[in-house]
Amino acid sequence: PYLLQPGDVLELIVTGNFGMRETLPVNIDGNVVAPLAGEVPAAGRSLEDIAGELRNRISQAAIPVSDGESVGSLEHVHPSLVSVSLRDYRPIYVDGQVREPGAHPFSPGLTARQAIALSGGMMSGARGSMRKESICPLMGRTGSGAAGARRFSRASRASSSARAASVTRSVLVR
Predict the structure, then answer these.
(1) C-alpha angle 28/110/148, rounded to 5°?
(2) How many other C-beta atoms lie within 10 A of the C-beta of residue 6?
(3) Average pLDDT for residues 14-39, to the nearest whole number?
(4) pLDDT digit string, tens, across residues 29-51
(5) What does the radius of gyration of the chain's CA atoms come to, in whole angstroms?
(6) CA 27 to CA 32: how far, in whole Å?
(7) Which is nearest to 120 in space by CA: 69, 63, 173, 43?
(8) Measuring CA to CA, which residue among 138, 135, 134 is closest to residue 166?
(9) Number of helices (H) and strands (E), helices first, in the chain?
């Protein structure tokens, strides 16, 4: 499953008498801050996991209900009225010999070729071919072909699997 990281944006909708729609960005610390739920750790968790926690926290909150003149009673939101979805994915970063390096929107299924196209294509005179380029997270090593990717995979697992899991996706074109 897709794991949330800083830069992702969730949408929280509470239906019924409580009608609420909130945008919840995953902040730099990896948390979302939601009304009635407070600060909730999100980085490294699936959407289903964070949605369950938000439903649980919101359903436990007591909400004052007003009759227009005064606060009458406290009510709870039923969990079935709480919906959480992924509104926007965190961006990818394309760097190297491309016309428009930097952040670009991500969508599921995006390939390296498509990411390079989003960044205006390769600059004239860029070395290498698309077949030999490898994609690695920003903190990883870059290399050509499968050997470079295997070196990165082993290094990530051995030395910093936790950091590698939280790194923003990037594409480097050499």
Answers:
(1) 85
(2) 16
(3) 93
(4) 999 999 999 999 999 999 999 99
(5) 21
(6) 6
(7) 173
(8) 138
(9) 4, 10
The one-letter amino acid code at 146 reads A
Q: Is 60 helix (H, G, I), strand (E, B) or coil?
A: helix
pLDDT of residue 130: 54
> Strands, DSSP E only, in 53-91?
63-66, 71-75, 82-88
- The C-alpha angle with vertex 149 and arms to 169 and 133, in degrees rounded to 5, equals 75
- Compare 67 and 85 and report the one with higher pLDDT: 85
Confidence of residue 129 (pLDDT cuts 50, 70, 90): low
What is d(CA 54, CA 49) in angstroms, rounded to the nearest whole number? 9
How many Cβ atoms sit within 10 Å of the Cβ of residue 155? 14
- CA proximity to 169, closest of 90, 87, 86, 88: 90
> What is the value of pTM for the model shown?
0.67
What's CA 5's distance to the chain center, in Å? 4
DSSP state of 46: B
pLDDT computed for residue 134 by the predictor:
41
Among 32-46, 65-79, 113-127, 156-170, the minimum mean pLDDT is found in 156-170
User: What token pair was written down for 135?
Assistant: 């994609």
Closest CA to 61 of 14, 25, 109: 14
